[in-house]
Amino acid sequence: MSPISQKNFHTANPEEATAIDRSIPEFAAAQVSDEDDYFANHKPPSYLPEIKQELEEFVSYHKETTGKRIALVTSGGTTVPLENNTVRFIDNFSAGTRGATSAEYFLENGYAVIFLHREFSLLPYSRHYSHSTNCFLDYMTESNGKIEIDPKFSDAMLQVYRKYKQAQDSSSLLLIPYTTVNQYLYTLKLISEELKVYGSKAVFYLAAAVSDFFIPESRMPQHKIQSSATQNGELSIHLAQVPKFLSRLVDNWSSGAMIISFKLETDNNLLLKKARSALERYHHQLVIGNLLQTRKKEVVFVSSDKEDHWIRLTDEELKNGKMIESEMIPAVIKLHDEWIKKAKI
Question: Mean pLDDT for the chain?
Answer without folding.
Answer: 89
